[in-house]
Amino acid sequence: xxxxxxxxxxxxxxxxxxxxxxxxxxxxxxxxxxxxxxxxxxxxxxxxxxxxxxxxxxxxxxxxxxxxxxxxxxxxxxxxxxxxxxxxxxxxxxxxxxxxxxxxxxxxxxxxxxxxxxxxxxxxx
Length: 125
What we know:
Elements lengths: L1 E5 L3 H11 L6 E6 L2 H11 L3 E5 L1 E2 L2 E2 H11 L4 E6 L3 H10 L4 E4 L3 H13 L7
């Protein structure tokens, strides 16, 4: 699965790269730090999934998700937030995100949740 990481925090992006570095079936194809870059990188790289921070410097993740869903209906959007996921997830799902996670759990839960989004054949892609 090809993943675009979208977060304005360098440490978060670096942490996600570290978490996914040993996952041979999960490839980071690009990174973005704001909504404009997310849309441009998605158009250029055509990732399978956009791992998107809910708080972007020039927009919020919900607006970006809506735009991504319009332009790329097959691309999954996975919203991550420093806020309590229970508070964010209703808005995330309403705008078309496939999943939502609190950033505190990325280290232990990210790779399995990404694979779950693709279904049982995720490792074969």
